């Protein structure tokens, strides 16, 4: 492609939170020109992730990812954020990779480039490129490491005078403390504490419960009962009198085949003690836990329950525009064995679920933590 004025690629905004949309525009192309838009991210694990879409410029020589159709690639159709949510490891990468932000104080950097043609585009020098910064932590958000009275985790506080509602953010059965969802929630106006709660195997159930109690009273709520609960892809079966780690070990004997109800405390027992609104978010193609079936068994206080079930979505429902992972490497909590775990989901449907559920989670939190006149926000 030779022309007097070179193509220009712009990203607006080039710096944004990860749950915000951007616009990618290519100008100064010849009319009717086939091009490929390509995104590339080098992860903190030193792996490369990419997405791409095939486009044809309009009569003005313009391609707008927001307005135009992708005719092929890792996504098709009119998908403004397809260059992010359809990302996958580049060919030849290690098996079972998962992309998650570890250091939330730095952005996720995504290089977006435009290449001539639709075939073998990687072998061609880009016509133009630009860099997008995707942040989990907004300017002014404070990150504080917590290790007090045995409670460990990370606290995120929004900018401004407050007061702010406070959230306790807990993940599932993986190893390690994850902060990116808490950082994003703080960026949306909530004090959020990401709790390290899957601790020593030698803790008794009573001591483990005390850990949560100290966390709730000392760090977060000052004795307040929770005002609302959001459960994402959660399974509420738990053997009575066991620690969380022991419970995972027991359940792992059954979940590969079926869920055993005998001698297991199910959610009907738990929900009787919950007196606040609860939002259950699940994927109908969850291949990891029977989350949809569990959510259907919740009973006793229907007026407090809201359910979201997404056809085609899997287990790992992340913040919007995050890549979809149908199967990834996983370290079994108790045995430390490394396996490839099937999470389920289909990329387009899963991506739509992530975007829709995040919007509804924020609305749910806003309704019950900011708009409820009976709630006095406290840190």
Could you name the key traits of this structure?
2 domains, alpha+beta, six-stranded mixed sheet, Rossmann fold, disordered C terminus, four-stranded mixed sheet, Immunoglobulin-like, 379 residues
Short description:
The protein is of the alpha+beta class. The protein is 19% helix and 27% strand.
Walk me through the structure.
The chain is an alpha+beta fold and 379 residues long. The protein contains 7 helices and 18 strands. A hairpin with a 2-residue loop joins strand 10 and strand 11. One of its GO terms (molecular function) is fatty acyl-CoA hydrolase activity.
- Which structural class best describes the helix and strand composition? alpha+beta
CATH topology of the largest domain, anyone? Rossmann fold
Tell me the β content: 25-35%
The helix fraction, in percent, is 10-25%
Q: Can you say what the CATH homologous superfamily of the largest domain is?
A: Alpha/Beta hydrolase fold, catalytic domain
Task: Please give the largest β-sheet.
Answer: 6 strands, mixed
CATH class annotation of the largest domain = Alpha Beta
Which stretches are poorly predicted, pLDDT < 50 over at least 5 residues? 250-270, 375-379
Strand order of the largest sheet: 2-9-8-4-5-7
* Number of self-contained structural domains: 2
CATH-scheme architecture of the largest domain: 3-Layer(aba) Sandwich
Overall mean pLDDT stands at: 84
Pattern of helices and strands: EEEEEEHEEEEEEHEHEHHEHEEEH
State the helix count: 7
